[in-house]
Amino acid sequence: MKCQSPKCNNPATVHLTEIIGGEKREKHLCEECAAGEGITTGKTPVSLNEWLQNFVMQQSGAAAAKTGEMVCGSCGMTFAEFRQRGLLGCPACYKAFEQVLMPLISRAHGNATHHVGKVPSTMDKTQRRQYELVDLRRRLRDAVATEQYEQAAQLRDRISELEN
Amino acid sequence: MDLSDLSSQAGEWLRGSGPMSDVVISSRIRLARNLAGYPFLTRADNDQRRELSDLIRGAITAVKGDGSLSYLDIDKLGEMDRQLLVERHLISKQHAEGEGDRGLALSPGETEAVMVNEEDHLRIQVLRSGLQIEDCWTRIDELDNRLGGELEYAFDSTLGYLTACPTNVGTGMRVSVMLHLPGMRITEELPKMFAAAKELRLAVRGLYGEGTEATGDFYQISNQTTLGRGEQDLLGQFGHEIIPRFVEYEHRAREALCDQKQVMLDDKVHRALGVLRTARQISSEETLYLLSHVRLGVNLGRIRGVPLEVINELFLLTQPAHLQRIRGQKLEEQARRVARAEFVRSRLSASPGQ
Predict the structure, then answer these.
(1) DSSP secondary-structure letter at B164?
(2) Which of A63, B101, B105, B207 could join B218 via S-S bond, C-beta 3.0 to 4.6 A?
(3) d(CA A119, CA B256)
C-alpha cells in the first residue's frame, strides 16, 4: 500500500484509525509524511540486552533471585547464567525456562509466538503440509491487504492444491 | 586448501556484478542450525565439541560428494590467517578469537561457507554479488535440506529451529544486504534512512557486522526478527521493497549531486583518486574513505579508466591481514601504511587508460 499523501510514493508504514464524531477515518502514511502530520510511532526494535535488562529491572529482588535459580534439568544451566550471557545452554532450556522466556521472546520478535516457515526435511509430510499452509494463508492475507491480486490468486491456488 | 590462494584476489561475491551493483555490494543469507541431543556451545565440553565437529564435517562431506567444500580447522590456523578470513566475511570475529574445536567449510568461489561450532553448531552462509537474494535462498535452502537429511536438527513445533540465542529462534535466518551509500552521506540524508530501517525492524551495521562502524560508506541492512514470518515472505519484502527503496534514495542523492553540485563532486572524487595515486603512507581508514569517493566517481562516470573491479578489490586487499599476506611477512602498523600506499599506487597506475 502506498502513502496517501499527494505526490508521495513511499510505502505506507503508519496506519492510523481516527474516530471523529462517530465517523471512522483511516490514514495510511509513510513515516516521513506521518511525522510531518505530527504522528509519531513509539515502536522501535529492542535489542536482546535491552530486554534482558528491562526484565531484570521489572522484578523485585526476591522474585529475581527465584527465577534466577531456575535450572534446566537437561544441561544444568541456571536462568541467572542465561541472563548474564544472553545464550541458552541446550535446546531443552526453551522448555525449562518457558514461563519466563516466552514473554521475552515474543517481545523481541514483534509479538510473534509461533514459528512460520521452513521445517526440517526429515519431518513427515503431514506436518510439513500444515506448516506450509499456515505460511501460505498469512501471505494470502497480506497480498489481499496490499491489493496484490495476481499474487493472491497464485497463493489461493497453492492453498487449495495442498488442502485437497 | 591453501589460504595464500585466497589473499591475492577477492571472492566472487565482490566482483561488482549482479543487479543494482552500483549500490548493492552483496547479498547474504545465513541460517543458524543446531543438532538435537547436544548442548549448545555454551555448555558443550571438549569431547562434545569434537563429536559435533566430526558429525558435521561428516555430513558436509556426504552432501558434497565431489569434495567441493573444503574444511579448515580454525583452531590450527595462525592469527593472521584467521584475521584474513574475518576480513573476507567468511568467519565472525567471535569465531576467529574463540577457543576449542571449530571450523569453516568453504566453497572455491567463497560463495558458500559453513561455520562449525560458532555460537550455534552450524551457521550456513551463502553470498552473492549485487542484489541476488532469491538466488541466495535457492542455494542455501538446498544446502540446508541436504545437511538436514544427514543431521537431526533441534526443531520445536512451536518455536521452530532452536538456537543458542533466543533472538535467532524460528527461521534462524539472517538476511544481510551490503550497501554502498556515499551519495547519501554527502547529502546528509543517512539519518532518514536509519529512521526508516528502524521502523521496519531492521538493523543497520558497519562493514564488519555487529558493533563495527560504517567505514567506506558501507552499511549492512539485516532483519532483526526471526519468529512469526516465513522465509519467502521476508525475502520478498527485502528483495522487492526495502532494498530497492534504499537504492532509489541513494540514486536520488547521486543525481542531486550531479545536477546541483557537480564541481564539488568532481573535486571530491578526483582529489581522492589523486591522493591514492600519490600517497607514500596511508592508514586503512583513510584508504576506505578515499576508495569510497573513487567508487562513486567511477559509478557516476566522472572518473574514467579505472575499472570498478579494481576498486572493489582494493577495499579488501588493503586490509591489514591481506596486505601482510600479499607481502608475505608480518608488518608493524607504520610498515603497513607504507606497504598499503605502495600497493594502492601500483594497482591504480596499472589500470588501463592511464
Answers:
(1) S
(2) B207
(3) 47
